[in-house]
Design brief:
By secondary structure, the chain is mainly α. The protein contains two helices and no strands.
């Protein structure tokens, strides 16, 4: 893999704080998921405490791969400093 982009010179090696920052974005996404699933369960069926734990836990496991990548993409977009400029034709 190239060390930097041959067109714009951007480094492909992220700084160490990138992964730490993306972890906070992932945490925020999971909090939103927990609240949405918990409120949905509460408003629709009023289950027992065990059902809350099981359903929210399964939702967290199912969304983990998606949130893993999404958190990195969002953190890079918000704080990476790079913007996409499509080539003119």
């Amino acid at each position: 893999m190239n060390q930097e982009c041959p067109v714009c010179g951007a480094s492909f090696e992220p700084e160490p704080g990138f992964y730490f920052g993306a972890m906070f974005v992932s945490y925020a996404l999971n909090v939103v998921l927990f609240v949405v699933v918990g409120l949905t369960l509460f408003l629709l069926i009023h289950p027992s405490d065990v059902v809350y734990v099981v359903v929210i836990g399964l939702a967290a496991l199912l969304f983990t791969p998606f949130f893993f990548r999404l958190s990195r993409v969002l953190f890079l977009h918000w704080f990476g400093g790079h913007r996409y400029h499509p080539p003119e034709q």
